[in-house]
Amino acid sequence: MLKTKHKVIVVMPAYNAEKTLEKTYRDITPGVVTKVILVDDGSHDGTIKKAKELGIEAFTHPQNRGYGGNQKTCYTLALSEGADVVVMIHPDYQYDSSLTGDLLKPILDGRIDVMLGSRIRTRKEALSGGMPLYKYVSNRFLTILENITLGQNLSEYHTGFRAFHKKVLKKIPFHKFSDDFVFDQQILISAIRNGFRVGEIPVPVRYFPESSSINFLRSIKYGIQTLIALFR
After folding, report:
1. What does pTM read for this prediction?
2. What is the architecture of the domain spanning 8-231?
3. 213-230 pLDDT, tens per residue?
4. Residue 164: phi, psi to the nearest 5?
């Protein structure tokens, strides 16, 4: 068990996560985090009710603000609670939240400022875990281009399992970023451009009907927006 004097807050940007929230929450190793905060982005199911049953502090957007808009609220709330480290976990059970301690350790040790849970250890594992082929190919293409442009050597930039030291979130202007999915890339690009250290650990790939995922057309839009963000 990871024991730390630091205040670690998990944030969960949620949208229609009623069926998967409990499994995601229960998998977080006890004693690893200080608090869990869920922000519901106008779900049409019982996400908020389920969060309250689990004792999770929950907030809701009356209207859907988008994935990036949800994260903005998540990080703002976590910082206002005095978080030293903020971990984002999608509550759709696509990411293995039992690895939260492994994700946190390099930040708590002072070696890294931003940690990512990479699903791309090998092509075989990514595809056997259910990642659609077009998503794998586009993920590899964008990641290679981002590594070249940003001078990094990461295996994936497109994961929804990530952790930030508070100094990163206080430094970069994340409120100015998009409310759409490209927010994930804008925040990483900004962190790297500001000189913060980014690391990663391998995590399992889990795609299934209840896990959230953008469709093909939204993926195309996301890819174009990522290229624009890199160019800028």
Report:
1. 0.92
2. Alpha-Beta Complex (3.90)
3. 667 788 889 889 899 998
4. -130, 135
